[in-house]
Predict the 3D structure of the following.
Amino acid sequence: MKKIVLTLGIMTALASSGFAQGFIFFSGGTTAATRMSTNSVVGGASTGTTVANSANSYYYALFVSVANTTSGTTSTAVNGVNGNYVFDNASGWTLAGIAANTISAGRFGAISQGSTSGNQVALNTDGSLSVSGIAGGTSVHTVVVGWSANIGSTLASVQAWYDGGALTQGYIGQSAVGSGLALGDGNLVSTSNAFGSSAGQIPGFLLGLTPVASTPEPTTMALAGLGGLALLGLRRKK
């Protein structure tokens, strides 16, 4: 009888752990310290908060980890084309969800994602995101990547753009890694916002302008072709 009870207890524990999930809010810009900004010169300092003519001009992806305290080799914010971004160092990081800017300067909020978007699921009724596989009450590390909407609306699109050499101009940046924030459990542990000025939360960060990748002009390519033909003709004469 004891063996049966013990077995049932183990099975129950495994089943509950399989469905473990904590909760987190994902929005920014509610205070000056959490507003998002951009620059106007490649490699330059912030020149003001993000401004949108309409919603969804910028997107943000929230990653959560139990063990990772860095993204690749850094825990500090990065921006532009020389950053070490979490989507290329994603081992141990879980994508919790996607946010988009609002029409208010420097602000954004989590959005629901369809099944074909390549992003993780919908918002809960209270506006929080579920973090699958990590139980509520667990202390986690968080990091956020933000980018301009002309790059795309999914994490896959920004990764392909960045890893492909950023051939079109856009904005990209990544937050510092936040550490020590406990996920909500829907009961005893309240659900916190990933962004804020308290311990473990992420402040606002800079989305850096990327340069346009240089490609040879048509006249340059034509001259190179003519030069190659001339060399070929000289070889034949010899």
